[in-house]
Amino acid sequence: MNKILVTGGAGYIGSHTVVELMNSWYEVVIVDNFSNSNPGSIDGIERIIGRRPVLVEADCSDYSQMHELFKKHSDIAGVIHFAALKAVGESVEKPLEYYRNNILSIINLLSLLREFGGKHFVFSSSCTVYGQPDVLPVTEQSPLKPAMSPYGNTKKVGEDIIRDTVLASANISAIALRYFNPIGAHPSSEIGELPLGKPDNLVPFITQTAAGIRPKLQIFGNDYNSPDGTAIRDYFHVVDLAKAHVLALDRLFKGSNKSNFEVFNVGAGQGVTVLEIVKAFEKVSGKKLNYEIVGRRAGDIEKVWADTSLAEKELGWKVKSSLEDALLTAWNWEKKVRGI
Ligand code: UD1
Fold first, then answer.
1. What band does 149 get if pLDDT is binned at 50, 70 and 90?
2. pTM for the structure as a whole
3. 7 CA from centroid of ligand 1 (Å)
4. Residue 286 included in any domain
5. How many CB atoms lie within 10 A of CB 179?
6. Residue 197 belongs to some domain of the structure
7. Which atom of ligand 1 is nearest to the CA of 277?
8. What is the dihedral of CA 159, 162, 167, 172, to 10 degrees?
9. Is 222 close to ligand 1, i.e. is its CB under 6 Å away?
């Protein structure tokens, strides 16, 4: 009745969501293939909660492995689907790998949910579906733009597959959460973001630079139309994002969703520049950051931030943590991982 399959539950956003689910009334089964996560996060979850989630090591894009899992846990009531490849640049080099992994996983999970009688599906979508919006902030009604990368397209196509499936199958309801830029780590420093190799994303790059692992941060472009010339994003605490998943699932369980497929923006609702992030990080960490301005990164948009009033009205969700809190937890996590 309350068993939730969390795909990618050992990963960055997945592990934080598992903590919030287990702190609520849900029983969790994690499925992860550790392609971009590590088993240590399961230990971290156990240290925070005092209980260990069930873990199945399997690949969501492999139908027979997933069928086995559903046979064993035939009482799965819902799925929160995080497991995906997510490196934008890599997706341009390896489009088929991205489509195969990200799209097959969605198809397998929806098929098995239907076959075994599960009812609820929450999907990790992204603000990338809006591209560079013409009007800011973006609402859920803002037009979607052609994806800038195969990765981005898997989010757009993923939403389409889910919408078409749930509209055809009255027994399944879905919510897609369009994340803006989640950052930070659990305040316990037991779980956090641990990219394999060189980080693509801004905040892990900053914390690794401050920890001395990277010589300097490169800031991609200072000729954007923004107060200091650097690009604008909507950064918010990953624990707030994790809580949005619990609220989305609660809504589906209560049946208070207004249609079989709903979409919500999830962000702080405020645009912040790269240089503002650097300054805020320096303030909370007390560390001076070595950085240089370089050219724009291919495929980057200039600015995006969310209108989150729909999530506030319908889910009762709003960010609680400040940007400074989020950056401090990111730094505390990095220090713990590096033994600083
Ligand atoms: C990126 C993806 C987005 C994906 C998200 C999660 C692109 C265009 N978008 O979001 O689709 O959902 O990651 O993986 O890649 N920056 C620097 N120096 C760095 C790293 C980043 O200046 O070393 C800047 C970027 O140019 C950008 C901002 O920091 O302006 C945020 O970058 P990032 O953390 O990669 O997130 P997004 O690009 O918003």
1. very high
2. 0.98
3. 23
4. yes
5. 23
6. no
7. 29
8. -140
9. no
